[in-house]
Design a protein that fits this description.
It is a single chain. The chain is mostly helical. Helices cover about 70% and strands about 0% of the residues. It has three helices and no strands.
Length: about 60
């Protein structure tokens, strides 16, 4: 939840790759729990842009596939 001015594209890609590897190793139970936590955070955040980013995050991270 940053922009190219705050985090370089290269650093962002490396972080995303590391996250995908870690998330891919989650059990179904852990994956469901993480989705629940992210969804709850999205529902509680006040800023609409951040809300939408959080609600879209599980799919974006490949957790819902």
């Amino acid at each position: 939840m940053s922009d190219e001015e705050s985090v370089s594209v290269e650093a962002s890609a490396a972080l995303a790759e590391d996250a995908a590897t870690s998330l891919g190793a989650l059990s179904d139970t852990e994956r469901a729990e993480l989705i629940s936590i992210i969804t709850q955070m999205g529902e509680e955040v006040g800023d609409e842009d951040r809300r939408q980013v959080l609600l879209d995050l599980p799919e974006g991270l490949g957790l819902t596939e």
